[in-house]
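Whether sequence alone determines local backbone shape is best considered at the level of individual chains. We regard such an encoding as a compact summary of how the chain folds. The sequence in question and its structure tokens are set out directly beneath this paragraph.
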Amino acid sequence: MQKSLADVLEQYIAQDAYVIWQTGHIPTSFIANFTAAMEANRYYYDNPQWTKGYFEACHRDEAFKGCWRAAMGSWDDKIVVDIGCGSGNLYASLGGSPRLLIGVDISRTSLEMARTIGYTPILADAHNLPFIDGFADIVALNATLHHCDNMTQVLAEAARLVRPGGLLITDHDPQVTAWNWKGLGMLLYKIRVPIYRLMSGGKFMSKKEHDAMIASETHHIPGAGVTPELYYQTLEPLGFTVKVYPHNHTLGAEVLQGIYGRSHMKLSFQPMVVWY
């Protein structure tokens, strides 16, 4: 007999966590402070058409796959927590056979999609996860931190779930220096969307969709983003060894050998790998 989501997840839920279990529905952790940033993310990713388009277009290229596979190794027969999993891009790209693949997000529509491809979903706030400490072999945050109000708190919560000897991997979060544009560079940034729309021959996303997507990316703006210090200062006191690999999105596994590529308009940390 197939196990229910409650049967699968309850052993990993903290005793003081408040999770609503309804047969046939996605388990939902109580969110005490549902912020404007959370609402922006839910609005965008709860739109079936928009989240389907994101699923089909993002984080699916060979460079992405090569980089993640080199950083992570095999996740077969391991417990994996994908925080900010969306509709399931990470697993859809990498495949494999995790023993348990938990997907965390605040978009119910995205979680329903992720569930169809193999995720065990739970709706929860990344700042206050309902899980016990130290149970996951791999915790992943792919294009997640910059969507959250408090990146430091989310990173620390993710680290809390990693078992001794496990991995925490983050990816696709733009760094502060990527936004250090002046003069012509900043002008091009401000007028980029009309240019994209003109060059696409009408295939670029609508203004409504684009505005909603941008609103969901809390720290994906000039003057914001991640820094090496965010990782070192948050994770080293917790006992992690931290390795940061800044590079552009066109490169794959070679970044782990220190090959970063040429400067790119939106350079990101891709990935940042930590372990005990």
